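During the reporting period, we have paired protein sequences with backbone structure tokens. One record among many follows, to show the layout:
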Amino acid sequence: MSITHYPTIISNVSGSEAGYPFYLEVAQGKIPGHSLINKFGYNPSIGSGAFETIWETGDNYPWQSSEVTVDVVSDSANDVHTTGSGARTLRIQGLDGSYNLAEETVNLNGTSTVTTTQTFLRVFRMSVETAGSSGNNEGEITVTYTGGSDVAATISEENGQTLMALYTIPVGYTGYLLSMNISSGKDQEMDFKFIQRINEGSNGAFQTKQFLNVRGGQTTVIFNAINVIPEKSDIYVSGKASSTSSASASFDLLLVQDGY
């Protein structure tokens, strides 16, 4: 099922070409200060007891209160820099303690832990950048916040990147929700929430901004920027099933830098 709220927007801003679709021009980098973010996630096992974040690690994403380095490890010795047949380098993307965009590419060392030099408050995407003869990660790659047990992100075997339906708006930017897609792995009722928290001070509360009930299959809702998401906001999709089921979700954002 698809629910459309607004027609396609045609560009008419400075730097655009008349008659070209606005979002195409953003994707092509033709409109300064604008970018598109696509986040997609998968949870292999969601039960009926409580809502869970749609990400591979399962259960709920651990929102951190302070920035730390992260520890990277694979459960396969083949995921090692230079000589490995699996993943060799891993790119980690997220935010630092001031909510600025942050990233680091690390050399993997198989089943031995590698610690980043960059500190992270959030990790919202990882990707295998180089690999050996297999062309992908041969083991499950796990990144944990240093000094604790909270898993920041997981890449399952042969996926090559994270599946995480979550994001945090960087400082100096505003996000606009364009679309959301959800699907259940079983022909049964399942509830999904799009949740947002604005991190201004220490008392920000998570609020449900969209609630969808589906029965099997998938549902896409197109908003075309009617949901405004301020800087530093945490956003994610969660789900709850009638009986244990897999679930996937994705959302698209227009990210606009301050001053544009």
